[in-house]
Write a structure and sequence with these properties.
The protein contains eight helices and twelve strands. By secondary structure, the protein is α+β, with helices and mostly antiparallel strands. The strands form two sheets. Strands 1, 2, 3, 6, 7, 8, 9, 10, 11 and 12 form a ten-stranded antiparallel β-sheet that branches. Strands 4-5 form a two-stranded antiparallel ribbon. The chain starts with a helix and ends with a helix.
Protein backbone atom coordinates (compact mmCIF):
# COMPACT_ATOMS: atom_id res chain seq x y z
CA UNK A 1 0.00 0.00 0.00
CA UNK A 2 2.79 2.45 0.85
CA UNK A 3 4.25 1.97 -2.63
CA UNK A 4 0.92 2.93 -4.19
CA UNK A 5 0.73 6.02 -1.99
CA UNK A 6 4.30 6.99 -2.86
CA UNK A 7 3.59 6.73 -6.60
CA UNK A 8 0.48 8.91 -6.25
CA UNK A 9 2.52 11.45 -4.31
CA UNK A 10 5.22 11.58 -6.98
CA UNK A 11 2.68 12.01 -9.76
CA UNK A 12 0.92 14.93 -8.03
CA UNK A 13 3.94 16.60 -6.45
CA UNK A 14 4.11 20.29 -7.24
CA UNK A 15 0.43 20.59 -8.13
CA UNK A 16 -1.83 22.78 -6.04
CA UNK A 17 -5.04 21.57 -4.46
CA UNK A 18 -6.23 18.00 -4.57
CA UNK A 19 -7.08 15.42 -7.16
CA UNK A 20 -10.07 13.14 -7.47
CA UNK A 21 -10.54 10.44 -4.79
CA UNK A 22 -8.56 7.34 -5.64
CA UNK A 23 -9.43 3.75 -4.83
CA UNK A 24 -7.10 2.22 -2.28
CA UNK A 25 -6.43 -1.47 -1.96
CA UNK A 26 -6.43 -3.03 1.52
CA UNK A 27 -7.52 0.26 3.04
CA UNK A 28 -10.10 -1.47 5.23
CA UNK A 29 -7.46 -3.66 6.82
CA UNK A 30 -5.26 -0.94 8.31
CA UNK A 31 -7.18 -0.24 11.50
CA UNK A 32 -10.03 -1.95 13.33
CA UNK A 33 -11.96 0.72 15.31
CA UNK A 34 -13.08 -1.83 17.89
CA UNK A 35 -9.43 -2.76 18.45
CA UNK A 36 -8.56 0.87 19.28
CA UNK A 37 -11.06 0.98 22.13
CA UNK A 38 -9.86 -2.42 23.29
CA UNK A 39 -6.33 -0.99 23.47
CA UNK A 40 -7.60 1.89 25.59
CA UNK A 41 -9.42 -0.49 27.89
CA UNK A 42 -6.29 -2.58 28.34
CA UNK A 43 -4.16 0.49 29.02
CA UNK A 44 -2.05 -0.06 25.91
CA UNK A 45 -2.48 3.54 24.70
CA UNK A 46 -1.46 6.36 27.00
CA UNK A 47 -1.53 10.14 27.00
CA UNK A 48 -0.61 12.10 24.92
CA UNK A 49 -1.31 9.64 22.13
CA UNK A 50 -5.04 10.34 22.03
CA UNK A 51 -7.59 13.02 22.86
CA UNK A 52 -11.25 13.80 22.31
CA UNK A 53 -12.35 16.60 20.05
CA UNK A 54 -15.76 18.25 20.15
CA UNK A 55 -17.97 18.18 17.08
CA UNK A 56 -20.15 20.88 15.59
CA UNK A 57 -17.17 22.71 14.11
CA UNK A 58 -16.25 24.17 17.50
CA UNK A 59 -12.81 22.60 17.38
CA UNK A 60 -12.64 22.34 21.15
CA UNK A 61 -11.33 19.40 23.10
CA UNK A 62 -13.08 17.32 25.72
CA UNK A 63 -10.86 16.30 28.62
CA UNK A 64 -11.14 12.57 29.26
CA UNK A 65 -11.04 11.81 32.98
CA UNK A 66 -8.09 9.84 34.28
CA UNK A 67 -9.40 7.14 36.56
CA UNK A 68 -6.43 4.82 36.94
CA UNK A 69 -2.79 5.58 37.59
CA UNK A 70 0.00 3.04 37.46
CA UNK A 71 3.65 3.48 38.28
CA UNK A 72 6.69 1.97 36.67
CA UNK A 73 10.08 3.04 37.91
CA UNK A 74 10.12 6.84 37.93
CA UNK A 75 7.33 7.16 35.38
CA UNK A 76 3.65 7.67 36.05
CA UNK A 77 1.13 7.05 33.28
CA UNK A 78 -2.52 8.07 33.29
CA UNK A 79 -5.17 5.91 31.62
CA UNK A 80 -8.43 7.15 30.20
CA UNK A 81 -11.89 6.46 31.45
CA UNK A 82 -13.07 4.48 28.42
CA UNK A 83 -16.71 4.69 29.50
CA UNK A 84 -16.47 8.50 29.37
CA UNK A 85 -14.86 8.32 25.94
CA UNK A 86 -17.63 6.07 24.64
CA UNK A 87 -20.32 8.41 25.98
CA UNK A 88 -18.65 11.34 24.23
CA UNK A 89 -18.39 9.36 21.00
CA UNK A 90 -22.12 8.60 21.21
CA UNK A 91 -22.72 12.33 21.69
CA UNK A 92 -20.85 13.23 18.48
CA UNK A 93 -17.22 13.71 19.53
CA UNK A 94 -14.18 12.49 17.59
CA UNK A 95 -11.47 10.42 19.21
CA UNK A 96 -8.08 11.44 17.84
CA UNK A 97 -5.12 9.07 17.99
CA UNK A 98 -1.72 10.63 17.33
CA UNK A 99 1.66 9.04 16.64
CA UNK A 100 0.03 5.71 15.82
CA UNK A 101 3.25 4.47 14.28
CA UNK A 102 4.73 4.26 17.79
CA UNK A 103 2.37 1.51 18.90
CA UNK A 104 0.15 0.30 16.04
CA UNK A 105 1.92 -2.30 13.93
CA UNK A 106 -0.12 -1.94 10.72
CA UNK A 107 0.05 1.85 10.76
CA UNK A 108 3.77 1.67 11.50
CA UNK A 109 4.29 -0.51 8.42
CA UNK A 110 2.53 2.01 6.18
CA UNK A 111 4.25 5.04 7.74
CA UNK A 112 7.71 3.47 7.66
CA UNK A 113 7.27 2.21 4.10
CA UNK A 114 5.97 5.53 2.79
CA UNK A 115 8.76 7.44 4.54
CA UNK A 116 11.36 5.13 3.01
CA UNK A 117 9.85 5.46 -0.48
CA UNK A 118 9.74 9.26 -0.34
CA UNK A 119 12.80 9.93 1.82
CA UNK A 120 10.72 12.06 4.20
CA UNK A 121 9.28 11.90 7.68
CA UNK A 122 5.62 10.83 7.81
CA UNK A 123 3.33 11.73 10.70
CA UNK A 124 0.12 9.81 11.36
CA UNK A 125 -3.17 10.76 12.99
CA UNK A 126 -6.44 8.90 13.09
CA UNK A 127 -9.93 10.19 13.86
CA UNK A 128 -12.66 7.85 15.07
CA UNK A 129 -16.32 8.94 15.19
CA UNK A 130 -19.29 6.80 16.12
CA UNK A 131 -22.29 9.08 15.65
CA UNK A 132 -23.76 9.65 12.21
CA UNK A 133 -23.42 13.32 11.26
CA UNK A 134 -20.58 14.09 13.67
CA UNK A 135 -18.51 17.02 12.39
CA UNK A 136 -15.02 18.28 13.06
CA UNK A 137 -12.59 20.89 11.75
CA UNK A 138 -9.25 19.63 10.39
CA UNK A 139 -6.11 21.52 9.43
CA UNK A 140 -3.24 20.23 7.30
CA UNK A 141 0.06 22.11 6.91
CA UNK A 142 1.99 19.54 4.85
CA UNK A 143 1.11 17.34 1.87
CA UNK A 144 -1.38 14.94 3.43
CA UNK A 145 -3.16 11.73 2.49
CA UNK A 146 -6.69 11.42 3.87
CA UNK A 147 -7.60 7.73 3.90
CA UNK A 148 -11.14 6.69 4.78
CA UNK A 149 -10.56 3.40 6.56
CA UNK A 150 -14.17 2.85 7.64
CA UNK A 151 -17.50 4.53 6.95
CA UNK A 152 -17.88 7.69 4.87
CA UNK A 153 -16.71 11.29 5.26
CA UNK A 154 -18.00 14.45 3.58
CA UNK A 155 -15.21 17.03 3.26
CA UNK A 156 -15.81 20.76 2.75
CA UNK A 157 -12.93 23.15 2.04
CA UNK A 158 -10.87 20.88 -0.22
CA UNK A 159 -8.71 23.18 -2.42
CA UNK A 160 -9.72 23.58 -6.06
CA UNK A 161 -12.92 21.57 -5.70
CA UNK A 162 -16.49 22.77 -5.96
CA UNK A 163 -18.94 21.38 -3.49
CA UNK A 164 -18.24 18.53 -1.11
CA UNK A 165 -15.67 15.79 -1.58
CA UNK A 166 -17.02 12.38 -0.61
CA UNK A 167 -14.64 9.80 0.77
CA UNK A 168 -16.09 6.30 0.91
CA UNK A 169 -14.52 3.40 2.75
CA UNK A 170 -11.27 2.31 1.10
CA UNK A 171 -10.76 5.60 -0.75
CA UNK A 172 -8.20 8.33 -0.23
CA UNK A 173 -7.50 11.94 -1.14
CA UNK A 174 -4.14 13.70 -1.40
CA UNK A 175 -4.00 17.33 -0.30
CA UNK A 176 -0.84 18.85 -1.74
CA UNK A 177 -1.24 22.30 -0.16
CA UNK A 178 -2.16 23.51 3.35
CA UNK A 179 -5.90 23.42 3.87
CA UNK A 180 -8.59 23.84 6.50
CA UNK A 181 -11.37 21.28 6.18
CA UNK A 182 -14.69 20.44 7.76
CA UNK A 183 -15.40 16.72 8.00
CA UNK A 184 -18.87 15.27 8.49
CA UNK A 185 -19.12 11.51 8.85
CA UNK A 186 -21.70 8.86 8.04
CA UNK A 187 -22.13 5.87 10.34
CA UNK A 188 -19.06 4.85 12.32
CA UNK A 189 -16.10 6.56 10.66
CA UNK A 190 -12.38 5.98 10.82
CA UNK A 191 -10.24 8.56 8.98
CA UNK A 192 -6.45 8.19 8.76
CA UNK A 193 -4.20 11.17 8.00
CA UNK A 194 -0.64 10.66 6.75
CA UNK A 195 1.30 13.94 6.55
CA UNK A 196 4.51 13.95 4.49
CA UNK A 197 6.99 16.34 6.09
CA UNK A 198 9.72 17.12 3.58
CA UNK A 199 13.12 18.31 4.84
CA UNK A 200 13.27 22.03 5.64
CA UNK A 201 16.35 24.31 5.75
CA UNK A 202 16.42 24.06 9.55
CA UNK A 203 16.64 20.28 9.25
CA UNK A 204 19.61 20.55 6.88
CA UNK A 205 21.40 22.85 9.33
CA UNK A 206 20.82 20.41 12.16
CA UNK A 207 22.27 17.53 10.15
CA UNK A 208 25.24 19.62 9.05
CA UNK A 209 26.03 20.52 12.65
CA UNK A 210 25.83 16.87 13.66
CA UNK A 211 28.13 15.92 10.78
CA UNK A 212 30.55 18.69 11.69
CA UNK A 213 30.81 17.65 15.32
CA UNK A 214 31.25 14.02 14.28
CA UNK A 215 33.81 14.68 11.56
CA UNK A 216 35.94 17.12 13.52
CA UNK A 217 37.39 15.20 16.49
CA UNK A 218 39.08 18.30 17.93
CA UNK A 219 35.84 20.25 17.85
CA UNK A 220 33.93 17.37 19.41
CA UNK A 221 36.39 16.85 22.26
CA UNK A 222 36.73 20.54 23.12
CA UNK A 223 33.22 21.79 22.38
CA UNK A 224 32.15 21.74 26.05
CA UNK A 225 35.22 23.82 27.03
CA UNK A 226 34.64 26.60 24.51
CA UNK A 227 32.94 29.90 25.19
CA UNK A 228 29.70 30.65 23.35
CA UNK A 229 31.57 32.88 20.88
CA UNK A 230 34.21 30.22 20.24
CA UNK A 231 31.52 27.57 19.77
CA UNK A 232 29.68 29.71 17.26
CA UNK A 233 32.78 30.49 15.23
CA UNK A 234 34.14 26.95 15.30
CA UNK A 235 30.78 25.38 14.52
CA UNK A 236 30.18 27.79 11.65
CA UNK A 237 33.55 26.99 10.10
CA UNK A 238 32.97 23.26 10.58
CA UNK A 239 29.55 23.56 8.95
CA UNK A 240 31.07 25.30 5.94
CA UNK A 241 33.80 22.66 5.64
CA UNK A 242 31.36 19.76 5.87
CA UNK A 243 28.87 21.38 3.48
CA UNK A 244 31.62 21.89 0.90
CA UNK A 245 32.42 18.18 0.95
CA UNK A 246 28.82 16.93 0.94
CA UNK A 247 26.64 16.59 -2.13
CA UNK A 248 23.07 17.84 -2.07
CA UNK A 249 21.71 14.32 -2.58
CA UNK A 250 23.68 12.93 0.34
CA UNK A 251 22.62 15.79 2.58
CA UNK A 252 18.98 15.28 1.65
CA UNK A 253 19.21 11.54 2.33
CA UNK A 254 20.85 12.05 5.72
CA UNK A 255 18.28 14.68 6.66
CA UNK A 256 15.40 12.43 5.69
CA UNK A 257 16.89 9.58 7.73
CA UNK A 258 17.21 11.80 10.78
CA UNK A 259 13.63 13.02 10.39
CA UNK A 260 12.27 9.49 10.13
CA UNK A 261 14.14 8.49 13.28
CA UNK A 262 12.77 11.48 15.17
CA UNK A 263 9.23 10.78 13.92
CA UNK A 264 9.43 7.21 15.19
Amino acid sequence: MHQQLAEIYRQTRGRAGAGEPIVMTAGDDIVDPAHLLTCLRAGAVRYPYFRLRAGGGAGGEIAARQTRVVTGGMQVAGFADVETIERELDAGAFLQFSRLAHWHRHVREVVTGLGHELGSAVDSRLFLARRDGATMALRTEHPTFLIQVRGQALLDGVPRRRGTAVLDSGRALLLSTPAGLRAEVRDESCLLLLAVREPMPADYAKVLKTCALTADARLTSHFHLMSQEERSAAAKQALMDVAARMSADKLSTMTATMMRQEAG
